[in-house]
Write a sequence for this structure.
């Protein structure tokens, strides 16, 4: 697993894109084995601030538990996102904490839902070149840049910890018998430790949020290949298809956000800046020469 090295949150953010220019696509599928889809996801806009939030939750628990937990997580996260004026990191933390409490309290009032919980991974896109991802559990965020895929989140799972300690490779973890044992969830306890990851963004980056029904079925190399496709809707659909072809052992959910490519920086004639500067210098020099002849 390649996690982003820890970075200090800095103020050197630059405005990179407008939220309305983002290309976002989502897909969810029950898979080929399960009888219920316990994954949920949401995509929300804050038109005033120009923020967008992508969120994926993978519920667990008997009866209706998993489904209810992941749906409650989406609802709680959306409510905080739409009502809070906090900065992205604080906003994500409080949204996840609210989701945790909502699920925990609902579970404690209904024996059928006792013990339910869900993972959560959320990404806020503000238009700036730095932002935050929050996660709890083994739902993941990835970033594809220049053909290279990086996993931005470290799984809160038994095998995830072994990967971080260097005792398993990501590929060994993926097919390990304990691969679905998670160590943190939303809603299973009164409090939750939310992990926040500071990420940088460049034009053309592709972000992927997914449940383990995708990442457990496909090696990163195949995810990277599929993400390199052109149309986000097609990419989302093909990721689901590939996970199903690989067995579809679990519910599959993907959300993709494509950061717009940098606009061409050019003069109206499309002249590269090196040539522009060379011409400007030449003109200046000839002007000096003419001036020296006149005076
Ligand atoms: Ca799952």
């Amino acid at each position: 697993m390649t996690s982003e090295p820890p970075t200090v949150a800095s103020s050197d953010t630059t405005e990179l894109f407008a939220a309305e220019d983002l290309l976002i696509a989502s897909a969810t599928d029950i898979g080929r084995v399960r009888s219920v889809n316990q994954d949920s996801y949401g995509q929300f806009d804050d038109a005033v601030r120009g923020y967008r939030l992508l969120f994926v939750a993978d519920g667990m628990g008997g009866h209706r538990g998993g489904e209810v937990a992941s749906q409650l997580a989406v609802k709680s996260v959306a409510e905080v996102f739409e009502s809070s004026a906090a900065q992205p990191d604080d906003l994500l933390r409080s949204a996840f904490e609210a989701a945790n409490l909502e699920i925990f309290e609902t579970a404690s009032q209904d024996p059928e839902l006792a013990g339910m919980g869900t993972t959560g991974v959320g990404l806020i896109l503000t238009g700036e070149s730095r932002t935050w991802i929050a996660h709890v559990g083994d739902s993941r965020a990835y970033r594809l840049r220049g053909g290279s895929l990086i996993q931005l989140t470290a799984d809160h799972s038994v095998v995830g910890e072994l990967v971080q300690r260097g005792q398993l490779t990501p590929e060994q973890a993926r097919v390990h018998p304990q691969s679905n044992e998670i160590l943190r969830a939303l809603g299973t306890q009164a409090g939750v430790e939310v992990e926040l990851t500071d990420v940088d963004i460049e034009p053309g980056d592709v972000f992927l949020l997914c449940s383990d029904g995708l990442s457990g079925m496909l090696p990163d190399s195949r995810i990277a290949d599929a993400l390199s496709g052109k149309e986000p809707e097609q990419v989302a659909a093909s990721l689901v298809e590939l996970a199903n072809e690989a067995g579809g052992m679990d519910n599959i959910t993907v959300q993709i956000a494509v950061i717009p490519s940098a606009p061409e920086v050019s003069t109206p004639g499309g002249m590269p800046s090196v040539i522009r500067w060379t011409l400007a210098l030449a003109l200046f020099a000839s002007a000096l020469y003419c001036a020296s002849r006149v005076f």
Remarks:
- The chain has a mean pLDDT of 90.
- The domain at 19-263 is CATH 3.60.40.10 (Phosphatase 2c; domain 1).
- The pocket of calcium ion is lined by residues 58, 211-213, 250-251 (CB under 6 Å).
- Helices lie at 65-83, 88-109, 158-164, 170-174, 212-215, 220-227, 232-245, 273-294.
